[in-house]
Write a structure and sequence with these properties.
Blueprint lengths: L4 H23 L7 H17 L23 E3 L8 E3 L5 H14 L9 E8 L2 E8 L2 E7 L5 E3 L2 H5 L15 E9 L2 H13 L8 H9 L4 H6 L3 E11 L7 H10 L9 E4 H15 L7 E8 L2 H7 L1 E2 L2 E2 L2 E5 L4 E13 L4 E13 L2 E7 L3 H7 L6 E5 L7 E5 L24 E2 L7 E3 L6 H12 L11 H9 L6 H4 L4 H5 L6 H14 L4 H7 L7 H11 L2 H6 L2 H5 L6 H12 L1 H12 L7 H4 L10 E5 L7 H10 L3 E3 L8 E4 L5 H9 L2 E3 L1 H11 L1
Parallel strand pairs: 2-13, 21-22, 21-23, 23-24
Antiparallel strand pairs: 1-6, 3-9, 3-10, 4-5, 4-7, 7-8, 10-13, 11-12, 14-15, 14-17, 15-16, 15-20, 17-18, 19-20
This protein binds 2-(butylsulfanyl)adenosine.
2-(butylsulfanyl)adenosine binds next to β3, β8 and β13.
Length: 678
Amino acid sequence: MAASSDMQFRVAGLRDQINGHNHRYYVLDDPAIPDAEYDRLFQELQALEAAHPELCSVSSPTQRVGGKPLDAFTPVRHRVPMLSIHTETDTGPGGALAFDAQVRRDLGLSEESAPVEYACELKFDGLAISLRYENGMLVQAATRGDGEMGEDVTQNVRTIQVVPLRLQGAVPEVLEVRGEAYMSRADFERYNARQRVAGRPTLVNPRNGAAGSLRQLDPGLAAKRPLSFFAYGLGEVQGWECPVTQSAVLDALAALGLPVSGERTAVQGAAGLIAFHRAIAEKRDALPFEIDGVVYKVNRLDWQRQLGFRTREPRWAVAHKFPAQEQLTVVEAIEVQVGRTGAITPVARLKPVFVGGVTVTNATLHNADEVARKDVRVGDTVIVRRAGDVIPEVVGVVLDRRPADAQSFVMPESCPVCESQVIRPEGESVARCIGGLYCPAQRKEALRHFASRRAMDIEGLGDKLVDQLVERNLVHNPADLYALDELALAELERMGAKSATKLIEALDRSKTTTLARFLYALGIREVGEATALALERHFGTLDAVMVANVDRLQQTPDVGPVVAAALHAFFQEPHNQDVIARLQRAGVHWPEAAAKFSDKQPLAGKALVLTGTLDALSRDEATDQLRALGAKVAGSVSKKTDYVVAGRDPGSKLDKARELGVKVLDEAGLLALLDNSR
Ligand code: IVH
């Protein structure tokens, strides 16, 4: 059935609407309709085009990924050559001053004449392309090539959503738009995340992503590496009233529906250039795409013509770079560092290289999987990246430069700091030193945890004090805390005799504890409060826990293979055994479990949530007592909660309880429950 004129009208209307929404969504970042509504319009257009092939058009928004894979790219001769620009190597203000001085000389301006107006733009870090529109339709897209001859990449460029297939408004007969195809940081990260999951190679940087995507012969694959585009100039133009300044040209291109970066401005003289360079350098890392500098252009086009070209570079424009964020250097060694939680991180020791404004000698390799995936070896030449304040990292290896004797990395079996065993639990990417309390790298964190309120509850042992104690080598492990000398303490910063006495008293008080608190305080991986309590109940004594094998440990309720393995490894470590013995000798003790807990657990299986303030006992005390009777005390209310205990000024948990019909107890009700259960 031939399409009626109504239908032609509808198809044209849908294309206009979709093009308009695409522009708002991709170019202006200001969508006007919900995605679902957009999808509906798109599907309607697809259906009409499928039913009436005679209505199809290459400029339809449905046709972005229409092309078939190519055998090779067709060469394209640029009617107006695509030139490059001179780069100022001085990354400081000197670069701007030199350019302005040269322009003024070339224009024959005297010292008294007014400052030159410049258009300041970003220097996008992608690939230059030229888009040719004839009567508003995108007819060809080409790479720069050698500037004279490029390659026809129309099919791939059609997949770039921000590139309009049709211009809007009063369109020129011929308009060649020059600009940069690039990959945004977000698209780069997304693409790499997908590749990692699939175990496929990742892109080294967004620029390589853009190059790879443009040079992809199959447009279907190019579409999977999404690119963006910014227009920054013109090639051949016919039948258009061209504006008279560069700034106005870009405004006009934006009005035709082309994406133009908003990060641009017109400034006066060298001072204006320097201010722009500085402002953009500060913003650089926060931009959603990468730039490697800024570009200054004499704003008046008649002056641009007057200035003309020197060999292959215009005299009216210059690129003023920022310090590079990536450099090549050689890996001299791969060592490991031990983090606060015992995580072992491989670090590349590098031949010093100036990158991102500083000399870098180390770069993180994250973990053993990353080293293997990137296949970084000692002796390799690598790309090192340092962006902003981010820790420098190795982004990839230059395989062509690999020496025959390059050495692969092997994760050490023992901790380089304390020589304890290094383990890497199955399914985890991070290897850890199990030295725990003994490993100096982990000491501060371990001490903080040991002293914390729900562990040994050592009042007054704050972070700053822990730092001092470790840094001055006064405390190596928790047992040393109980050997601290009041006089030595009083000498520390922000201490004094009174606080020293108080701390010693607090340490003394903390010696009377419970087995569960003690187990929790040891900071064994995977062992939280609930597990510590379960262990206390199941084993009754510390000795029993310490000698238990993995099977025995797993018989504890809620202790699975991972927790059991962590416990077993911890107690096998002689250093840990030693610290525990010293703590007990120092007087740390707890009531025997058998005496404190009867076998019966009257509240076993009951789940409670506490909210608001209690008067007779603190929330922590209530929690301890309830847990001792077998109850689970949770932080949030669900259908599985048996009781919500509401004290004074209860929070939203009470509302939630009412909503779900969970039983609510007041403080008296809680006390009665505790009494009746003992
Ligand atoms: S203008 C005749 N403006 O930098 C002048 N180039 O050598 C033509 N670039 O690879 C270039 N951002 O793709 C101009 N705002 C910008 C630019 C820019 C990036 C790239 C361009 C080329 C190189 C210039």
